[in-house]
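Let's inspect a concrete specimen:
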Amino acid sequence: MDARRALVALNEEWRSLARTGAPGWGHREPALAAASDLASVLALIRERPDPVLAALLRLGASGDELAYRVVLQTMLGKLVLLCAGRVELLPEAISELWLAIVEYPLARRPRAIAANLAWTVRGRLPRAEPVRPVPELDPVAPQPEPDASGTLGEARRLGLIDEPTHRTLWTVYVAGLTSAQAAARLGTTPELVRWRCSRALRRLASHAELLAA
């Protein structure tokens, strides 16, 4: 499925789902008590991202896949941004996002959930530059994935991004704000926020080995 068809299919499905009542979620998760339908769950995520996303992840882990679908929907805008310049990766990014949602370590990372999901997907997508072959090594224990805040701090320390770019990326990927919310906080425009994030992510991708060292 190409990128455009993948997005269209998901958004068409969501238009149908959005009118569905949240199936007793408010009784099980107080953070969702104000939601009358799935569309209003998205509105709650914008107001209180971490408590609402955490509630949805708990519901999903208990077997309610519809809760995971809501998390997927709220992350689609960030996926498009992550795939800027490589839109052909979007179907793969959607699959990786679903896996990241299902596997999310909520007990270990209860804050900046949207940012950490986006960062996990970014780390799983193919790099823009060709990958050089390396000698086969003995298996080693998997290392914890870096979180967004730590990676951005290292990128700033190495001079890969300037201070305004660091603030912008932190506001979007750590604080979890939308482009419009970030623009209001930073005193700029949503377009500039999206452009700055897109440019910076391409630069960080080209220095992935340095950041991982």
Notes: The domain at 148-212 is CATH 1.10.10 (Arc Repressor Mutant, subunit A). The CA atoms of residues 16 and 38 lie 10 Å apart. The mean pLDDT is 83.
